[in-house]
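Now for our specimen.

. . .
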Amino acid sequence: MTPDEIQDLFNNIPQDEESRVQALEELLSTARELQETKSPELQVLAEQVGNGSREERWRIPLGRSGLLDFFLGLIKEDELDPDLVTHALRVTGNSCADQDENRQRVVDSDCLPQLVKLLTHDSLLQFAIPVLFNICVDYEPTQKAASKAHLGIYLIDIIQARPLHEKALPYMNIIYKLLGIAVAQEFEPDLINPRAPYLLLSQATLDASERGFPDFDGFLGLSSAALAYLSHQKLQDSFLETPGAVAVFISAFQRAIQGVSVFNIDDTDEQAQLAQLQSMYTKTWADLSAHPQFASLCSLDSPVAGLLLGWISSSHDTELQIAACLAFGNIARTDAQSIAFVQEMSVHKSLIPILSSDSETDAQLLHCALSFLKNLSIPASNKAVLGGAGLLDLNVLPRIWDLDTQPQVQFDAVSLTRILLVNCPENVRRVCVASDTQDKALIQQLIDLHRKADQEPTKMETARAVAGVCRVLHSDKPAGSSLLPESLPSPASEDEASLLLRDFYSKHPTLLDTLLYLGLQTKFPVLRSDLWFVLALMARSAEGFAIVKQAILQHPELKDLLAAAVAGEREANQEASSNPPVGDGLDLSAIGQLEPQQVDPKKAATMTKIDRENALVLIAELTKSGPDELPSEVRNVFIQMLKTGGQLVLGDRNEKVESAASQ
């Protein structure tokens, strides 16, 4: 076919597709002849086909005729003719626009590695970029092949070039989109430039007046790539070692949060994409702030910490509030940091409004704020400060206890309450003594929640919270002193405290059921150990003894559990403990020296011995009562347990002495 005939063909397009395919097959024969003879007219033909390929009706025929494969072959040649390859790229890019059939032909031709390498060719770069985009967009097989050909690495090299390649500038937003496409596939993090996440986020945060400023799709591509890279530990390490990296990440994160106004987004699909991107930023921020190196980059007196504190108060930006709580929660992993947060920065004063909001607060934000507060509540010196700041006010934590529709948040609130109560008489008083404006004390609300809760973790935490209250009340000197009004001078008289403690138990008759849940469950032995410790403390006062005796009489299975604890077993042997013989000449000297001990779950080897000793203290207190207090058959069972347990305690002590002597 002559050039005029070719021009006539493209000017007068055959009506049916089959005729178009046949016409291009004829043209393919001409092209092959010109290639074999190395005729310069091949370039004229290529230009004409390139021009004609802009017409949509030629796209499928170009592939089916074999003409597309011919031009792909020109791109794969070892010695490239830039002018000829330019037209070959035009044919390839146009014929692949919205045509998966032709995109697959590109994959099958194994031409993608050569196409990707053209990004390093100065004169072909401006053609290769849009062609690669047309080939890859919305078609996963080409995306995988391009990613395997290291498309992402080549694109990062272009972005890294300073100043930006002049020919690449008009195509920067396409480069950003392509990068997002490439990184969405699997990639080898070891091949990635360690500075890549920093470079990409820096590009994502350019001002509108700067060259290469990304539009929304470009920002999406840059961010997606950077966040994908930062999902790998090695690249996280490199990123945090880069000066200014945290500030750059924060700037990009803020731009994502403000994306609707920054990019004038009103399309619902784009809004959904932006929301997804914001969540990706939050997740990556959580990973970065959990990195061991992060705390040193975000000291509490740094500008970053000041910015995060401002985020917490930013009630209109939920994602930023979540991000600040995540970061601070990860930093507050030591007592020193937690104390500084509360007693120097007063960060809790910004968190309480989140918990007390009258409007429906985002569940993830509530979870993050409560988790942060749990870390802040661990140091003993913070507990009363937090309670006094209002965390236990009716419209704060107690409000969240009732959020049945958000079980995880409800659990978090109860768990935080339990931590606040640990060894803190001030907070115990706050939950046990009702104010003039309350119908009932907060502890009753916890007891009621235990009864109605469907979730086992919530039931467990309410029981642990009640156990924590009982522990404090019976650690007081005298027992029950925490119930006295704050206005009364101390020390309290024993009679006043005793009267208040008796009244407390009478007002909360179902407290016992909540407390015993720790012993009657079998999933967590360490919580049963906590129960023996608390009951042993309680049994040493008249008011507590009455509750413990009631527990023993109402729940006979407790005798079997105590027998197992004394014997050093995790489960009771029903047959051995049902009718034990009554011992004579019982020596209580070993048991008389025992005191209730808190179990340390980190020291599993000592748990059995501590369980035994706490059980024996409890049993010893019970056996001191007369027949009017405890039926003789129950008392006899306990006396036998004391005999067995006393021998085991002596054995434990002898073993300890022998072990020390041998060292």
